[in-house]
Amino acid sequence: RELPRRLSGRRLDLAGAHLGDRGVIAVLVALARDPLLEHVSLAGCALHRASLGALGAFAEGHPALQSMDLDGNLFPPEAAHRLSTALSARAAVAAAAAGPGPVP
Questions:
Q1: Is residue 12 within 8 Å of 40, Cβ to Cβ?
Q2: Which helix (H) or strand (E) element contains residue 3?
Q3: Which of 42, 52, 65, 103 has the most CB atoms less than 10 A away?
């Protein structure tokens, strides 16, 4: 069965692909090598708690990623906190890489 893949510029829409926790890990490994990817939709892909670590690592480590749609999956309540922590770590690394601001 072919995945419903819609690629437009720097966006990838896999919404409804029913990847599951195992399938999304393979997809994230492949997407990690795409330096232009800015937006990915994994909405309604049957994701659960088991994929949170991989999603967090992907969100934290991908250099160009700006948004990830995870709507319609079956995450536990603490999922938002885990993903927020990953994004905060990413922001801290980006700020450190940018160095100090202009000296007045």
A1: yes
A2: none
A3: 42
Amino acid identity for residue 59 in this structure: A
SS3 label, residue 46: coil
Distance (Å) of CA 53 to CA 36, 82, 102? 23, 8, 36
Contact partners, residue 28, CB within 8 Å, separation at least 6: 54, 55, 58
- DSSP summary character for residue 90: H
Q: Please list, in sequence order, all residues whose beta carbon lies within 8 angstroms of the beta carbon of residue 15, skipping any fewer than 6 positions away.
A: 4, 41, 42, 43, 44, 45, 69, 72
Q: What are phi and psi of 53, to 5 degrees?
A: -60, -45
- Strand pairing partners for 41? 13, 69
pLDDT tens-digit profile of 11-47?
Answer: 999 999 999 999 999 999 999 989 899 999 999 999 9
Token pair, residue 4, equals 């419903």
